[in-house]
Structure formats: structure tokens, C-alpha cells
Amino acid sequence: MIRVLSHPVYRRLFSAQVVALLGTGLLTVALSLLAYDLAGAQAGAVLGTVYAIKMVAYVGLSPVTGALAERLPRKKVLIGADLIRAVVALALPFVDAIWQVYVLIFLLQAASATFTPAFQATIPDILPEEEDYTRALSLSRLAYDLENLLSPALAGLLLVVLSYQSLFLGTVAGFLGSALLVWASPLARRALPGEEGGAVARRGFRERLTRGARIYLATPRLRGLLSFNLAAAAAGAFVLVNTVVIVRGGDTAAGAAAQGIDRGETGVAVAMAAFGAGSMLAALALPRLLSKLGDRPVMSAAAGVLAMLTLGYGLRGSFGGQPLPWVALLGLWAALGVAYGAVLTPSGRLLRRSSHPEDRQAVFTAQFALSHACWLVTYPVAGWVGQAAGLGQAALILGLLALAGTFAGLRLWPAGDPEVLRHAHPDLPPDHPHLAAPAGDTASPTAATAGGAQAPGGAAPVHAHAFVIDDEHHAWPTHG
């Protein structure tokens, strides 16, 4: 896996991701403590609102900013977004009201909604070989897990000698470091739409705004991916929103048994680190596991585990079970982390497989927006239901959502899922360039069917190739 870091450009970009996520991890811990400082036992509801605002920014703004940024040099987009995030994070230590937190988080996440899809779409352009890209995805997952492992551990050490407000300065340093590393990376300039070597046609804003979602939702494997993302969001939201409540304050909702463990501020960091450690373990094992089993079996099994573990916790809490011992809670969080990482890590492989290079940023942006729409549902459930009805009831609802996502993913993503599909083009004449394209072109017929072979009885030309939704292919062959 580490071998992919020998690529100099990827090494710099990976380093940028690591330092930015170290800062983001400090921000996660600091926000939890700030919410508890401002709202006390209602911190879970505040964090649920904060994360819901984050998702609103992601879902509502990422398609718009992605469409606008498509005509800008990607390097400038990445650096600009990092600088905006640094400025906003610098203001967070000075807030003294909950509404100020909400406003600043919206601004920060609006910049992240621009940065993240553009960054993710850059990696497959740098690493065109699938084996290298798979390793890069696992390394990327490891980098994300730093937010849940090394950053909370670092936060715990810093909290021994500093106030939690100082953690926000670490966030600022992370975003500035990321901007510097991106600036130092010699990214090749993309051919923009309308330029020689760019997209075939100069698409209008509306087309750029909706193209990624249309490709995404017309592709069965990506519809399955979205369903598995719902399972990951359901379990992940419960962990991220309610860890601080479970570890520090307990469940104070009327009629609910207290489930707090009262391990203090450092206990929150340790619990989050356990979740991150599990996800990191999954990322280390996945390259070999995916090569043997494939994406669908691994992701569906992991989604099912997330559903069962979340439901189990909810049943225990809802029927008056004793609070989990500290070690058992850490073990549960680690197991949830393993399954969570196994669902999310392969996503980039599916997106890369399902799009042409010129559509890749649009498809990554669609994944970013649609997957975070799942979090927009699950974060409020984790925070508001947990506050109003108890943590057990919140976990039950989220576990049922995860179970529904698992079954939907299995239904929407057919088993087998071949890359090369035989299909007809009733809307194209036999001499259309797509049908006559030379074999070997990734968007052209295979050698056996090149030239648009006429089907028996004079039916529409039929051929086979690696199938993706694009200008010549508007619907999946098995769906009309």
C-alpha cells in the first residue's frame, strides 16, 4: 500500500490531506466540548444541529460550487477553499453564543463542499492504474481515520495543558498546511470545457449542475452505493453525535436510564479514537480483501454489521439494560469503525469505474452531495431523538435505517455487475462514429463487435464495451 507514495505528486497531495484532517479532527473534539460548554446536557441536540447544517451546506452547495469550479483551474480552487476554511476556524474560539457556531460552521463547510470533491476527482487523474488507485483509496481512508484516531489522541494530550479553545488554532494550522502542500504540487492543468482537449461540447451551467447526479442515479452500482452510504451514515451519526453524551453526561431524557460513563474530556477523545482505529484496520485489510471478494460482497456485509450492532445497542438501551462497561463500549465503537471503513473505502473505485475522465469531477460531486443527504437525515435523528426520547430509541431508529439501506443496496446493485455490457443503439444510425470507433477505445465497441454489427432481422446495431452513462448512453441496458 505504501508503495503508491513513491509517486511525488500523490505524496504531496496525500500529505495535504493528512494535515488538513489532523486539523479537522481537533475541530471535531473542540466543537463537542464547546457545545457542552454552551449547552450542557443538551450538547447532543446542539451537535445534531451543527452536523445538520454541515450536511445542508454539503448537499445544497456542492453541486453549485462544483459546476462553477469546473471552469476554474483545480489547483486554485483547492488552495482558495483551504484559505477560507482557515479564516473561519480562526474565528471559532471567540464565539459565545450557539447561533454564532451555526453561522461559522455553515461557512466552513461551504468551503469544504468545494474542496473535497475537487480533491477526490484529482487522484484518479494522477494514478490511472486501478491497482495504484485502490491503494490510494485505502491510504485516503487511513487519512480520514486520523480524524478519529490521532487527532483525538493529540487533543487529549493538549487538553492536559491547554484549554479546548486552543484546539481551534490547530485546525487553522492544518488548513494552512494543506494549502501550502497543494501549492507545492505540480498538478497538470486540465483542459477546460470548450478548449482543445477538453469536453466535446461547452456545456451550460444547468447541464454542469445536474450531469453528475443524472449519471450517478442512472447507474445501478452507484444507486447501491448510495444505499450502503445510508447504512454508514446511520451508524456513524450515532457515534459522532452521542459519544460526548454517553461518555460525559449520560442520557438525561425523562424516563430513560442514565448511560453515561463519566470519563471526562479525554474519555471522549479515547472513544472517538477507538472508532477511528477500527476504520483504520479495515482500510489496511481492504486492498487484499477487495481483490479476492469484490466490492459488492464486502460493502453489503459491512453495511449489515453496522445495522446489527446499532440495533443491538438500541435494544439494550431501550429495555433498561445496564450501561456498557467502558472496555465493552470501546470494543463496540471499534467494531462499528471496522464496518464503517469497509463501506466507505471502496466508493472511489465504483465512481471511477462508472464515469469517463471528463465527467469524473461531476460524478464525485454527486456522490459527495447525495451521500451527505443521508447524513442530513441521520444527524438530526441522532441528536434530537436522542435528546427527546433517549439514546436507546435513537439507536433503534438509526439501526432500522441502516438495515433498510443494506437491503436496498442489495436490491439496487445486481450481483455480478459486469463492466462490459452488450447493448443496442436504436437512436443511432449504423454509421455513427460511436458504433464505428476502433476497438480498444474505452468508450468504443470491443473488437468482436466493432462497427456496430447489425442484429438479426435488421434490428438496431448491437455492440459491447465498458459501459458508462454518457452522451451516447442515457439508460442502463438492463433498465430499458
From TrEMBL:
Residues 424-434 have a biased composition (Basic and acidic residues). One of its GO terms (cellular component) is plasma membrane. Keywords: Cell membrane, Membrane, Transmembrane, Transmembrane helix. Residues 424-458 are annotated as: Disordered. It is a multi-pass membrane protein. Residues 9-417 form the Major facilitator superfamily (MFS) profile domain. Residues 435-458 have a biased composition (Low complexity). GO terms for molecular function: transmembrane transporter activity. It is found in: Cell membrane. It comes from the Bacteria. It holds the Pfam family MFS_1. PANTHER family: INTEGRAL MEMBRANE EFFLUX PROTEIN-RELATED, INTEGRAL MEMBRANE PROTEIN. This is MFS transporter.
